[in-house]
Amino acid sequence: MPCLWARELLVRNGVDEQKLLLSRQGLASRDDKSSLIPTQRQAHSNTSAVRLAFLGRFSEEKGADLVIEAMRSLPHAKVCLDLYGSAQGISGERYAQKLQHLAEGDERLRFLPPLSNQEVVPTLRGYDALVVPSQWMETGPLVVLEAFAAGIPVIGSNLGGIAELVSHNLNGLLVTPDSVLDWATTLRGIAADLDLLMRLRNGITSPRLMDQVAVEMSALYRQLIRRSDRCLMTWENSVA
């Protein structure tokens, strides 16, 4: 299982705990491992705005509207947000239009085209933090690991896999998922205390790679094969 909450859900529904293995997701391995090592960023001046990014689908469960509404409630806060996203299907298009309407007239909010996989980490290095306001139980999400690879903290919903990867006040901040007020309070806080972002960056460690996941999966399959061989040998002896 890629996260604890999914494992616990299966156990509560009667799955044998001994048959479950927690193996968290990792980022795609690259020849240049330095691209996945968090980098230190310079502290802001007192006059510059905090730069935030959102990456993901424009859909209700991703919760981008909450962050936009929180920013609109703080018209004088020195915070800007770039939203890299795409709309899928009719519902996605409607939600994207809703976001555009919510952001209308606020120059701190920009809608940008989605990034390719290769662009994500280099692009995130230019920001101060990533917002992940998901409203459902994510099993990752990978974008949290990509933010850590870029060396920036995550401000995310205190929910599901996000809450398992983000340690509050260590490498990011956790926010009440569906509370515009809590999001506004958090954004106001980082705008007022720029040293907080530096402390959070210092708490980031390099995310794991798919190389490590592959090693775990290989070990698991070898174990299963040995177990299968023992069962087959036992059966052959019983019928001999």
Specify the biggest β-sheet: 6 strands, parallel
Which descriptor suits the 3D outline?
A: elongated
Name the CATH superfamily classification of one domain: Glycogen Phosphorylase B
Distance between the termini: 39 Å
Named at the architecture level, the CATH assignment of one domain is: 3-Layer(aba) Sandwich
> Which percent range describes the beta-strand content?
5-15%
| Record field, number of beta strands | 6
Oligomer: single chain
- Portion of residues in helices? 40-55%
What is this structure, in a nutshell?
With 240 residues, the protein is an alpha/beta fold. Helices cover 45% and strands 13% of the residues.
Salient structural properties:
240 residues; 13% strand; Rossmann fold
Task: Record the SSE blueprint.
Layout: H1 4-12, E1 50-57, H2 64-72, E2 79-86, H3 89-103, E3 109-112, H4 117-124, E4 129-132, H5 142-150, E5 154-157, H6 160-165, E6 172-175, H7 180-192, H8 194-202, H9 210-239
Parallel strand pairs: 1-2, 1-4, 2-3, 4-5, 5-6
Helix pairs in contact: 2-3, 2-7, 4-5
Model description:
The chain has 240 residues and is α/β, with parallel strands linked by helices. It has a domain at 48-202: 3-Layer(aba) Sandwich (Rossmann fold). Helices cover 45% and strands 13% of the residues. It is built from nine helices and six strands; from the N terminus they run H-E-H-E-H-E-H-E-H-E-H-E-H-H-H. The chain has helices spanning 4-12, 64-72, 89-103, 117-124, 142-150, 160-165, 180-192, 194-202, 210-239, and strands at residues 50-57, 79-86, 109-112, 129-132, 154-157, 172-175. The protein has a six-stranded parallel sheet with strand order 3-2-1-4-5-6, with helices on both faces. Helix 5 links the parallel strand 4 (129-132) and strand 5 (154-157). Helix 2 (64-72) runs parallel beside helix 3 and helix 2 packs across helix 7 (180-192). The longest helix has 30 residues, at 210-239. It is elongated. The relative contact order is 0.17.
